[in-house]
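Appendix B, Record 12. Input sequence as logged:
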Amino acid sequence: MNEDPKVNVSGLPRDYLDAGAAGNVSAAVSSQVPGVEPEPELVVNPWDIVLCTSGTLISCENAIVILIIFHNPSLRAPMFLLIGSLALADLLAGIGLIINFVFAYLLQSEATKLVTIGLIVASFSASVCSLLAITVDRYLSLYYALTYHSERTVTFTYVMLIMLWGTSICLGLLPVLGWNCLQDESTCSVVRPLTKNNAAILSISFLFMFALMLQLYIQICKIVMRHAHQIALQHHFLATSHYVTTRKGVSTLAIILGTFAACWMPFTLYSLIADYTYPSIYTYATLLPATYNSIINPVIYAFRNQEIQKALCLICCGSIPSSLSQRAPSPSDV
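Logged structural output:
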């Protein structure tokens, strides 16, 4: 099947192979010399290497989280189900980045492009949706503190998981089922073979979920501050102690939301305003920070959790440090 020579084989940003034009010219000249058969050179995009490395780190980190949750029956609360969903989505995203690199340079075809981009879209969509689900769960755990641990919460959690994974799989199947720009390059977005309309829908959906997360975290901050004030009054804490505790909780929430926005907002806004004619370096420069969010997620949502820390200590050291077992949760752990 003939393909446009301007199209990058990676299925992510395009037009990098033009950099190898000079090498192709020299190869053509040398081929005219009798007795000389030049060997074809494989031009590897350094940005693709960085993305593949990022995918490897993402896969290793999140595989550890999944193994910890899977091998510990005590980690079956709704919160851990959602953290496991986030880790699974990020794990698939990392695998997708690795597969994309392998297929781009070893198995080049339109089918592999569609399957790879579908996996990446579905996994990153599930990752963002899992973050939203975790935010909803945290809000419910504070707002309905007395009834949160009921069977109704578990059912609601499973409903959220089914909805977020069902939606993400549907988004990933769109390019495979025909909504792509392989037949009409003028409709391509900055990520080939996604169409401009497809990328716009994904970007707008992200902005909507970010706004919803922002609103929920504002409400969480209000609840945390109110709870910390009530605890301070009951135990006759000093005002400075109440201030420090509240500040830690608010700072933690600001870090969570700020990290999420810093990682995803550049690529989201760039996808809305740019198309396939823009230089590919801009796409790589905005896409790479988005992958970093999947590296940071296990640190923020999993490894900071006391129960997961205890399980990890049991696996690695065979015992739980006394400092960890005696530490009480605080608003900064939200």
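The chain is about 70% helix and 0% strand.
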